[in-house]
């Protein structure tokens, strides 16, 4: 949750590219240019840029780069096309972004259509909870208005409005689960609404309070603003919202604070607060030393909740020691579950063309019955699993999923497998996640071999006037996978390499250098060294040596 400055975050966009999204894509281009132009070279510069386009029936690919100009080029190349009917593959695009983004990222999804793949809701929530990622939805126009299939325009408009309320609720549920927002505006208001994106890219952004209500009545919210908060921003979303901001004295006010360096901080309260209600459970805080605290609760909320932390910042930079109260709230919602899903350890490698059997177990501490099983993977690989398991009250059951990557899958592709269990009637759900990497079966366990062919040296006392040259043959053996790269670790000369066989198993290396640089170290790495340790060789040569 953070008190001091954090590291910069990834900037991740998931963008609907259907024909009606021209204005939205233009807004994405504008906000991207603003962030890159204003924050590159500062502490708030994004550490990573990620883009996932989607429409129907396609989504992806996931584009990831650390180069701001390259990312700007990708954004500028987005072209709205097709569409005309809804819904779109928005959750598939979001799932791909969640599996490809680092933990604690913030994702912005732009669309004007409902989700065609709403069956992925629980899988997406599972990835949100695991990665602690915040997801914001930028929704333009009333969802469902792109449908134009009925002759009766009034009837169609009424149906679309009903669909809009139900469809946008899915996005609101996902935003709430992640601690994000679902902002619905007209297309000409979108550019103004994107200010949330530029504000959220701060490396020191913290969350003080977040609440979700649908009460239609007056309610008060209290939160503490400590001296480390330099720019307080309050977002209020909804319809017909009236609000007034008061300071503790009871008068409405503006806020100006100064950042002071805190010597230490102490946690004094930890509370579990219902995400959509006013219920809360207080914990007993015990300091463990080293900035660690153990918090014990006699119960936990039966609905989704967040963690609210309060404490004191002790500051002794002035002539007298002082303290100030701080509070921080987790973004991602948590929930208690009577279910446990456990995926067995099957390693982290998925061999192309070969089914990987993934055993898993489901345990309940509640009532038994028929539990629905769902499994998804973000690459769309062939996947089979039991549709249900029968559990007794307080019991467990085992199942096996089978995942197969196509034989043509690119080596190094990451795959995220999510297995979910749902209690009878949908009263409870839980999940487990397995991350795999597609790799071909390894038969090459030997390092490359470096054989000296020739070494010619005419070095004299005046090294600036003479050169020496080296010729080496590099092979990867009969069962080798081939040479991946050849680099210099030591030496200031010129290194050239040419493969002499079609399979890349034999490479001829030449090296030329001044006699003032008489030593060279050549590093040879084969193709499997990317995934195995000690699959390379370092060979040293010297102009002062002679052939054996």
Automatic annotation (TrEMBL):
InterPro entries (UniProt xref): GBD_Hemicentin/VWA7, HMCN1-like_VWA, Ig_VWA7, VWA7, vWFA_dom_sf
Keyword Thylakoid: no
Top-rank taxon: Eukaryota
Keyword Glycoprotein applies: yes
Domain Hemicentin-1-like von Willebrand factor A, residue spans: 10-187
Subcellular location: Secreted
Pfam families in alphabetical order: GBD_Hemicentin, Ig_VWA7, VWA_4
Principal subcellular localization: secreted
PANTHER family the record matches: NG37, VON WILLEBRAND FACTOR A DOMAIN-CONTAINING 10, TANDEM DUPLICATE 1-RELATED
Protein's name according to its UniProt entry: VWFA domain-containing protein
Source species of the chain: Oryzias javanicus (Javanese ricefish)
């Amino acid at each position: 949750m953070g008190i001091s400055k954090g590291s910069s975050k990834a900037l991740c966009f998931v963008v609907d590219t259907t024909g009606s999204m021209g204005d939205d894509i233009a807004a994405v281009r504008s906000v991207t240019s603003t962030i890159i132009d204003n924050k590159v070279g500062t502490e708030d510069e994004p550490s990573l840029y990620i883009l996932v386009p989607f429409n129907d029936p396609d989504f992806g690919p996931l584009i990831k780069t650390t180069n701001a100009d390259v990312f700007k080029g990708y954004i500028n190349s987005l072209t709205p096309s097709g569409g005309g009917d809804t819904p779109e593959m928005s959750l598939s695009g979001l799932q791909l972004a969640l599996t490809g983004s680092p933990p604690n990222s913030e994702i912005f999804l732009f669309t004007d259509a409902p989700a065609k793949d709403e069956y992925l809701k629980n899988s997406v929530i599972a990835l949100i909870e695991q990665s602690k990622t915040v997801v914001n939805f930028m929704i333009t126009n009333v969802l469902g208005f792109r449908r134009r299939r009925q002759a009766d325009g009034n009837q169609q408009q009424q149906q679309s409005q009903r669909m809009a309320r139900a469809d946008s609720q899915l996005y609101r549920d996902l935003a709430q689960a992640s601690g994000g927002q679902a902002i619905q505006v007209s297309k000409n208001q979108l550019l103004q609404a994107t200010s949330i994106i530029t504000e959220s890219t701060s490396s020191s952004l913290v969350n003080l309070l977040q609440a979700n209500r649908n009460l239609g009545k007056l309610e008060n919210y209290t939160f503490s603003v400590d001296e480390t908060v330099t720019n307080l921003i309050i977002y209020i979303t909804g319809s017909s919202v009236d609000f007034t901001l008061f300071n503790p004295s009871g008068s409405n006010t503006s806020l100006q604070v100064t950042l002071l360096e805190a010597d230490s901080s102490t946690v004094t309260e930890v509370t579990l607060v219902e995400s959509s209600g006013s219920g809360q459970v207080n914990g007993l805080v015990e300091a463990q030393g080293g900035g660690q605290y153990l918090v014990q609760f006699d119960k936990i909320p039966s609905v989704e909740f967040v963690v609210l932390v309060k404490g004191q910042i002790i500051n002794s930079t002035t002539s007298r020691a002082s303290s100030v109260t701080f509070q921080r709230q987790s973004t991602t919602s948590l929930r208690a579950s009577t279910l446990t899903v456990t995926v067995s350890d099957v390693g982290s490698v998925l061999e192309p063309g070969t089914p990987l059997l993934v055993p898993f177990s489901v345990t309940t501490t509640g009532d038994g019955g028929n539990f629905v099983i769902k499994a998804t993977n973000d690459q769309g690989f062939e996947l089979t699993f039991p549709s249900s398991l029968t559990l007794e009250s307080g019991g467990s059951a085992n199942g096996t999923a089978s995942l197969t990557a196509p034989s043509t899958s690119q080596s190094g592709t990451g795959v995220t497998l999510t297995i979910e269990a749902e209690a009878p009637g949908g009263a409870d759900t839980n999940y487990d996640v397995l991350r795999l990497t597609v790799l071909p079966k390894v038969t090459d366990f030997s390092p490359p071999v470096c054989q000296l062919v020739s070494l010619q040296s005419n070095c004299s006392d005046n090294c600036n006037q003479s050169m020496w040259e080296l010729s080496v043959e590099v092979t990867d053996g009969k069962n080798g996978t081939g040479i991946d790269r050849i680099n210099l670790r030591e030496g200031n000369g010129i290194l050239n390499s040419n493969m002499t066989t079609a399979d890349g198993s034999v490479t001829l290396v030449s090296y030329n250098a001044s006699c003032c640089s008489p030593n060279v170290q050549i590093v040879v790495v084969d193709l499997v060294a990317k995934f195995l340790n000690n699959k390379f060789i370092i060979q040293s040569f010297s102009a002062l040596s002679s052939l054996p």
